[in-house]
Design goal:
The protein is α/β, with parallel strands linked by helices. Helices cover about 35% and strands about 20% of the residues. The chain is built from five helices and seven strands. The protein has helices at about 1-15, 75-90, 105-115, 125-130, 160-170; strands at about 45, 50-55, 60-70, 95-100, 120, 140-145, 150-155. It has a five-stranded mixed sheet with strand order 5-4-3-6-7. It has a two-stranded antiparallel sheet with strand order 1-2. A hairpin with a 5-residue loop joins strand 6 (about 140-145) and strand 7 (about 150-155). The longest helix has 17 residues, at about 75-90. About 25% of the residues are buried.
Length: about 170
């Protein structure tokens, strides 16, 4: 009987949290690698089409790093909206997708169908270490024009949320 009450409580709590858009700023922070407020970690990687990608390539722009996977329905739902955001606000923002898939071929096949207009990187141990606060997908790391991480958001976000975020950070 106690188990049934626990399950009911768990379901009630989880359903009350669905759809709430809150920054994930209270996640535990690795004491060795990430202070509460920090400069975005520099990295150099190759996109799935072999082109170099680094944060330094996009001076003066807001950068949204979107962690996603092909098997994640909210991620897949968010991608067309991010493509549209890049198209509409490309002068203010640069989106970088980091796939958490383990199979690079699955990512390439998905990308060929999806027609991304922003670079897609396959996650590796270095990127996972640099972005230790990524505990769910989709997760978007927002980096202001000053190169500082301003927010980390877990879960699906609607297009207006991202437009407002980019407008706020590009001032």
């Amino acid at each position: 009987m106690k188990y049934a009450y626990f399950l009911i409580l768990l379901v009630a709590i989880s359903t009350s949290l669905i759809g709430q858009e809150k920054p994930v700023t209270s996640l535990p922070i690795s004491k060795t690698s990430q202070p509460t407020i920090k400069k975005a970690p520099a990295f150099k990687a190759k996109s799935i089409d072999g082109k170099p990608v680094s944060l330094e390539q996009y001076p003066g722009k807001v950068i949204l790093i979107n962690f996603w996977a092909t098997w994640c329905p909210p991620c897949v739902a968010e991608i067309p909206e991010l493509i549209q955001l890049q198209k509409q606000m490309g002068n203010k923002v640069q989106i970088i997708g980091i796939s958490m898939d383990e199979d690079p071929q699955a990512v390439r096949q998905f990308a060929a169908k999806t027609r991304f207009n922003y670079p897609i990187i396959q996650a590796n141990d270095d990127l996972k270490e640099k972005f230790t606060r990524i505990t769910a997908i989709p997760t978007t790391v927002a980096i202001g024009k000053n190169g500082m991480i301003s927010d980390v958001f877990a879960g699906y976000r609607n297009p207006q949320f991202f437009q407002d975020l980019v407008n706020r950070l590009s001032k």
